[in-house]
Give the backbone structure.
Amino acid sequence: MWIISNMEDCIINTDHIADIYCIGTDVVALIANAASKSTVVLGRYNGSDQSRCALNYLFRNLGNVTKTLQMPSTEEMRALVSNGNKKWHHATGKKTKGHGGS
């Protein structure tokens, strides 16, 4: 299987990936060949929340893809992170009854 970076500057064969991890705003893959090791940036995002969300996206989708997996863009990560932080509101718009306080 192949992973395409979100900057579309490289394609990585997953057979050669030893580890995938986050460093700050980047999702990085450690490539381990027989002779040497090197790192490749799979995705660069606007914040560590987005990079962790992208790493989670990658792990959830690795088993579902047969040929290639495109790393999500920064816009897609911004949407996913903001959707996860939405406030819950009652369906009718009314306030929910609290316990205690005024």
